[in-house]
Amino acid sequence: MSKLGNLGARLHRGEVGYDFVGNRKIWYGLSILITITAIVGLAVRGLNMGIEFQGGAVFNTPKTSVSVSQAQEYAEEASGHDAIVQQLGKGDDAKLRIQIAGIDTKQADKVSAELAEKLDVAEKDVTGELVGPSWGEQIANKAWQGLGIFLVLVVIYLAIAFEWRMALAAFVALIHDITITVGIYALVGFEVTPGTVIGLLTILGYSLYDTVVVFDSLKEQTKDITKQTRWTYSDIANRSINSTLVRSINTTVVALLPVAGLLFIGGGFLGAGMLNDISLSLFVGLAAGAYSSIFIATPLVADLKEREPQMKALRKRVLAKRAQAATQGESQDAPVGDESLADEPEDAAPAVVGPRNQPSSRGRGRGRPSGKRR
């Protein structure tokens, strides 16, 4: 842990770092590949919409020794519709939750009686609940409205607090996170319930948190950037990512641990299938949000800013200064530091991520054993 803390401090000071912005084409390509896979999965497999969105009936049985596959066969024979069966609990205490879409009240009574007979349980112990499709449609509409309002407010706020390029980059990162999460649901085949919608809306705020942290650091470090010839905008964007990298990793890991417990232990090992509804969206969304804030949002901002005439002119001056310094044999490995850009001299050495070289003192203490003034 102490090594990780030291690494974080060195990243923040600019002594070490990784060129995220310079390798942005790799991350763009990887994100495009993942997004296309998610879209294809969504188009081919579609979403497994829960009973709340389709309408139908949900039956809960007492503990039974009948397997999930056998209970699914019984339910489909009794109703004539596809059924989804979840096992709640393990071993002899296992109960079943059977969902059948597209049946009405009369069919539900008949199905309940047949299930009780085939599962060898009392009919009164099989509880049923009918869900109308209009209720699910209202939930879906409200979710889409909430998502739309959220995105509009986020773009407006970021455009005011930072600038429109950062607002656009954050919007692209959010769409990236939503697409990947929904695509994973389609590929895995998990049921989409109101809990899934709640989880999806929750991870959007977390995704923005990391992005805004990096943007705030970038905004602070680019004040008066055109008054110096040491760093380009991309250099400082890369510095901002590195300085907040360990913080992003720590917060993401801490957030993923309890969600992973819900998904893999609660939903998988303990058989609490209903936990999968919200835990998968949280797990995938948190991981995608951390990725997009580092590899998508900030490099995209750097791309957009470098197209400005002022930034183009600055890049030419910086590259010219570095070329001049290279011909003169001057040091080329001074990283982006914490100093204010306005305080940097015009003839400062150019910045490249790497170890910081300190100039050696000349003649300090020469001729005096103690090195002190007399």
Structure description:
The protein has 374 residues and is of the alpha+beta class. It folds into 2 domains: 21-49 and 135-305, Multidrug efflux transporter AcrB transmembrane domain (Multidrug efflux transporter AcrB transmembrane fold), CATH 1.20.1640.10; 56-131, Alpha-Beta Plaits, CATH 3.30.70.260. 63% of the residues lie in helices and 7% in strands. It is built from 11 helices and 6 strands. The chain has helices spanning 2-13, 24-45, 51-54, 68-79, 105-119, 133-161, 164-188, 194-221, 233-269, 275-305, 309-327; strands spanning 48-49, 56-61, 83-88, 95-101, 127-131, 191-192. The strands form 2 sheets. A 4-stranded antiparallel beta sheet has the order 3-4-2-5. It has a two-stranded parallel ribbon with strand order 1-6. α8 (194-221) packs antiparallel against α9 (233-269). Mean pLDDT is 77; it is low at 331-374.
**Overall form:** elongated
Q: What portion of the residues fall into strands of 2 or more residues?
A: 5-15%
User: Class of the largest domain in CATH?
Assistant: Mainly Alpha
Looking at the structure, the CATH topology of the largest domain is Multidrug efflux transporter AcrB transmembrane fold
Domains (count): 2
Helix content: 55-70%
Summarize model confidence as the mean pLDDT: 77
Query: Low-confidence runs (pLDDT<50, min 5 residues)?
Result: 331-374
Number of strands: 6
Superfamily (CATH H level) name of the largest domain = Multidrug efflux transporter AcrB transmembrane domain
Order of helices and strands: HHEHEHEEHEHHEHHHH
Radius of gyration: 29 Å
- End-to-end C-alpha gap: 46 Å
Helix count equals 11
